[in-house]
Structure formats: C-alpha cells, structure tokens
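Private note to self, pasted from the team thread so I don't lose it. Backbone tokens:
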C-alpha cells in the first residue's frame, strides 16, 4: 500500500471514529434524559449541530426565575439540565434545545426553528406531527449533525439528512 493510500485510510478511520463518537454521545444523552423524566413530561426535541449558520432559529421568550446553567458541558450536566427543563411546569420545556456535538455541550434552550422547506416532496416514509416534521427538515440543513426527539411515550426517534435513522423508533 502506498503512503498516500495509507494516509487516506487513516484519515477515513479517524472520521469514522469521530462520527461514531458523535452518534454515541447523541444516543447516550437522549437515553440518559429518558431515564430521568419528570411525571409531567410531554416530549423533547434536541438539535445536535456542528454549526448553526444555515438554520433559521429564534429563542422563545421564557419568563423564568430558574437558574439554568448553559452551556452545560458533558453528558451528565447536559442530561441533568434537559431533564430538569422537560417538565410542563418549566417555562423552558417548549421548542428545540441545541447541543454542540464537537464540544458535547448544551448551548441553547427553547428555540423556535424555521428550517427551509424542500422544493420537491420529501422521499421516504411520511412523518406526523409538527415536532417530527421540524426534526426531519432541520436534519437536512448543512451544519446540523442530526435531530433527536424523545416522545411523550419515552421513545427516542433520530433523524439525519432528512431520514429517520435505521431501526426507527428505539424504546
């Protein structure tokens, strides 16, 4: 094998390890939150991003006197914050929350998303509900690594590049 081929294979292996690390973090975070849900949990949407330049979003106005530490870095801290704000009694429960996958940090809470609509019909199975459709469309935006939803039935649904990840809903 030539040196160039060897370098290409090593770089490809490094990219795969980074992707696997991002996927493991995303699933671990959603799973950790799913184990700590409040009794009045109604669902959760999390955007895992590499950059936010192409995703239109706007912070929801949340009148709250609760001290919510953001950024929340690392799995345990991010899961604790997401669990805490996922109660219907929390003003922060609405909208999507953003996680920087490179730094494994929860950076934004309660964001309204306005992902671009596709020019052509979406391919693949239809999804129902505004949260799911927003997740599908947002996952197609450059810089968005994926979008995870934790349903009110405590099921994880994950979208990448406009498609639900293989395996569908993972309880």
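Design output:
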């Amino acid at each position: 094998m030539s040196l160039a081929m060897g370098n290409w294979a090593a770089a490809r292996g490094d990219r795969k390890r980074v992707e696997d690390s991002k996927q493991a973090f995303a699933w671990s975070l959603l799973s950790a939150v799913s184990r700590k849900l409040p009794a009045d949990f109604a669902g959760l949407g999390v955007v895992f991003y590499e950059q936010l330049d192409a995703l239109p979003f706007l912070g929801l106005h949340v009148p709250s006197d609760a001290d919510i530490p953001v950024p929340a870095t690392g799995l345990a801290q991010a899961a604790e914050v997401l669990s805490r704000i996922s109660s219907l009694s929390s003003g922060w429960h609405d909208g999507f929350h953003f996680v920087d996958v490179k730094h494994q940090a929860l950076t934004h809470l309660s964001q309204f998303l306005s992902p671009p609509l596709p020019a052509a019909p979406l391919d693949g199975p239809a999804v129902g509900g505004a949260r799911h459709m927003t997740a599908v469309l947002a996952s197609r935006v450059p810089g968005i690594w994926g979008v995870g939803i934790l349903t009110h039935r405590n099921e994880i649904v994950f979208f990448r590049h406009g498609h639900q990840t293989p395996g569908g809903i993972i309880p």
